[in-house]
Structure prediction request, 88 residues.
Amino acid sequence: MSPANGVADLILRFVRQMVDTPGAVRVTTVIQGGVTLYRVRVADAEVAELLGKDGKIAQSLQTIIAAIGTKQRRPLSLDIVTNAQTGL
Prediction:
């Protein structure tokens, strides 16, 4: 398993525990400008659950991802999108 797949799997496990429809969660990996971006897609109605009050849950997830990136010596980032944003 590549480090990117391991991080994506970790994100998937976390996010599925936080939403009401875990089967709808998707994590894709995109490399943009040297940064590995983990794009998390959830149902439109569940974005608020994932963001949390004042974005604190999303910030916490981003902090964990950044810490993993520091350990792996590569920049990692998290992006939360909805099906409406991706045209699905």
In short: Residues 69 and 76 are 5 Å apart (CA to CA). The radius of gyration is 13 Å.
